[in-house]
Amino acid sequence: MRSYPLTVLKFGSSVLRSEADLPAAVHEIYRWVRNGHRVIAVVSAIGNSTEELLARAHAFGQGVSEHAVATLLATGESTSAALLSLALDRAGIPGVILDEVRLGLRTRGPVLNSEPCGIDVSAVERALETLSVVVVPGFVGRQDDGTVSLLGRGGTDLTAVFVAHQLGADCCRLIKDVDGIFEYDPASSERQPRRYRILTWADADRLSGGIVQSKAIHLAERNNFAFEVAALNSDQPSLICGQPAEFYEQQPDSKPLRVGLLGAGTVGLGVYRYLAAHPERFHITGIGVRHRERADGTPRELLTLNPWEVVDSDCELVVEVIGGLWPAKELIEAALKAGKHVITANKLVISHWGHELRALAARNGVQLLYSGAVGGAAPMLEQVRRIAETRGIRALSGVVNGTTNFILDRLADGMPRDEALREAQRLGFAELDPTTDLDGSDAAHKLALLAHVACGGGLHPNQIERTGIEHFDAEAVHEAARAGLSVRLLATLANGSDGVRACVGPQFVDRDHVFAQTRNEENCLEIHTQTGEVVYVRGKGAGRWPTAEAVMADVFDVCRSARTEVAEDYLTAGRVL
């Protein structure tokens, strides 16, 4: 029995129109990962790739080999899978590609319109034991003789539904460029059609108008398997199953969420680019910066040297990524008092004044979110909170600072300490002033936040016993490596009958241990539950894109909750048609 929920997400060419849409798919995948799911992402070829490849095949005339055509068209899906995997890696989300061979997706029937008949379930389960995401090229399988085969037009839907059914997935969602299934084509009438909450397989086949492949619907019906159709970032899918039809209440069109951004440095610039890529969802009211003369694409008219102008703007949400204690704390406090949601990646502020700021947010009916403060794209806070609420936490330990990883590995290779530090700074793994990394302060602040969600109550960073690596013997690290050991700066928490004990310090671990395999900016947390299970959370913990991904996950949470509030106000006012 799996220890995690499994979700299959399908991304078609209507969603992946170009490579510029890959980050949106990553956002959707990460949304499920940070909610504790393992994800299988089934992808179509990007944009018009399949049509372009088919045209190239037809250029050779009529009667060409179907096997050659299938092999050519399959390259569109394999390219899409590789690009999505690269985008996930950049965002710091660990995953692997299982093509049709490694997946063991077997087919039968015509080469260009096959039916799936089996997969290697154990191969998927092995991959998901240590990784959050498996990327699968849709539409493609292999017949018994190894011949490449295709699952027909729209066959990625079929791949997703078949794989989800074979694996007993908890959720199978086909991500489309429409927000579910409607009672008729919205473009065919001035009257707004109702959108299905639930509909039968037969109704879906009749109404979807090719949005969902008929073969996928028929497969689901034969196996009494329910699946969903929804747009990106949706909380209201159309569930296709055997139950009678239900409709969503009609809702007003939602307006873009107004966002003020404090900081446009390493992380802030990544957040800006993600926000700017979705003008239909987000309107940026201003960006607080230190220098207005920039060549990074940020519009000059949005820039201000006065961060208070951003907080005082008509924004609904303030994103703080300037770092440091001051003036970040005052800016966050002012925004919350003004009734604005706040998202921050500032571990210093939250570890020192989190209790006070959370109470302030609650009094003003707004959200204070800070997923990016610990672990970057490794969703440590979310996983610890979920386990604490469901199974309880006995202990946790982990690598939560990538700078020390990098330096310790270079010392293990025999590199002098100063040279290892300069290399870390050159590659962006260490700040110009690396003091808080090397003395363990950074890890202690993160551990204080983890302790809050794991055990409740407050634990100030100054209460955590701390030993850094700033004076650690480089030769000892090198000798340990020769003996098959790695040195890691570990943050450790024990929650026992005698209370909570927390410390940060270097420890020796076997080179085969998951902590030893955590390299560079990667982070890894080992969680021991009160029920005896061990859960690992892994991902890149620093850098522009991993931290921006965590920040954006919080942004999308606020965006969805804001839409829900608008809908509830609309219904309460009695304006439902």
Give structural notes.
- With 577 residues, the protein is of the alpha/beta class.
- The chain folds into three domains: 6-247, Acetylglutamate kinase-like (Carbamate kinase, 3-Layer(aba) Sandwich), CATH 3.40.1160.10; 257-375 and 546-572, Rossmann fold (3-Layer(aba) Sandwich); 380-542, Dihydrodipicolinate Reductase, domain 2, CATH 3.30.360.
- It contains 19 helices and 25 strands.
- The strands form five sheets. A nine-stranded mixed beta sheet has the order 3-6-2-1-9-11-12-10-13, with helices on both faces. It has a six-stranded parallel beta sheet with strand order 16-15-14-17-18-19, sandwiched between helices.
- Helix 9 (266-276) crosses helix 19 (544-572).
Structural class: alpha/beta
Number of domains: 3
Instruction: Tell me roughly what share of residues is in helical segments.
Output: 25-40%
Point out poorly predicted stretches: 570-577
What is the 3D form? globular
Radius of gyration: 25 Å
pLDDT average, as an integer? Answer: 92
